[in-house]
Design brief:
With 272 residues, the chain is α+β, with helices and mostly antiparallel strands. The chain contains five helices and 15 strands. The strands form four sheets. The protein has a five-stranded antiparallel β-sheet.
Length: 272
């Protein structure tokens, strides 16, 4: 059952989402060769608590960490380790925050130094597919419209779209209805309704769409060992249109990236 949020609740969710966005922006300044994901995890936990919020992942489903850090062939759910990041790596950092009883859940894939051109292209296409999917999150559309748009864009570029993991509704629980696959058929699935909030999160592989779980019980990797990329935004349906509650602006500011990719999806001005 889809849990519709009031405008007031959506604003509380925006606050939670932006705490995650600021956390990712803080981490963007720290991510470099030689840094471990365990070090990043500690920084994130301290930062979130300093915002009078709680780490959204820590303890959820017995998760042992604040961040999920997925390096190279890891798709999602990578546990922080003491292995230093190195030049040419990529790392998807997925983070959650809980404040005012509502969750924010948000992810960005970072480049460590200079990465291979084909990996850079995968990052670009996956990020673009996120906004292509968000564009379809509108009145009278259905879950399949978002999934179809993401799938077609990524498969047209020759990439594998993960089937076994999906985006989701978001609210007082980290995972609510509906599930939001990154594949599907137009006009299929649950209909979008005013006031719903979802996490849209394409997980796109350079090779096969097939995946497997490692023995740690968490980390999901590509079956062929090729890189995977993951981006995620929290999006509300307001006045029949998608409103992004999270932002990559803090990451972009830290990395010196200029982008207007979110402007179409923001009715309320973002104040950094």
């Amino acid at each position: 059952m889809i849990i519709v949020k009031t405008r007031e609740e959506i604003e509380l969710m925006r606050e939670s989402a932006l705490i995650v966005s600021k956390t990712l922006g803080m981490l963007a300044k720290e991510i470099k060769p030689g840094v471990t994901t365990k070090q990043l995890d500690k920084l994130a936990e301290d930062f979130i608590r300093a915002q009078n919020a709680l780490p959204g992942f820590l303890g959820l489903y017995n998760c042992p960490s604040t961040l999920l850090c997925s390096v190279n062939e890891a798709v999602v759910h990578g546990l922080p380790t003491d292995i230093p990041l190195k030049e040419g790596d990529i790392v998807s950092i997925d983070c959650g925050a809980l404040k005012n009883d509502f969750y924010g859940d948000h992810a960005y894939t970072f480049e460590i130094g200079e990465v291979a051109p084909e990996t850079k292209k995968l990052i670009q296409i996956t990020k673009e597919s996120l906004y292509i999917g968000i564009k379809e999150f509108k009145a009278n559309n259905r879950v399949g419209d978002v999934g179809f748009a993401i799938q077609k864009y990524c498969e047209d570029h020759g990439y594998g779209v993960v089937r076994d993991l999906v985006g989701h509704g978001l609210g007082k629980k980290m995972h609510e209805d509906p599930e939001m696959p990154n594949y599907g058929k137009r006009g299929r699935g649950k209909k979008f309704v005013e006031g719903m909030v979802v996490a849209i999160e394409p997980m796109i592989n350079m090779g096969t769409h097939r995946i497997k779980q490692l023995n740690d019980g968490w980390t999901i990797v590509t079956l062929d060992g090729k890189p995977s990329v993951h981006f995620e935004h929290d999006v509300a349906l307001i006045d029949g249109k998608p409103e992004i509650l999270s932002t990559f602006a803090y990451v972009h500011e830290a990395l010196g990236i200029t982008s207007d990719e979110e402007e179409t999806f923001r009715q309320k001005a973002l104040v950094l």
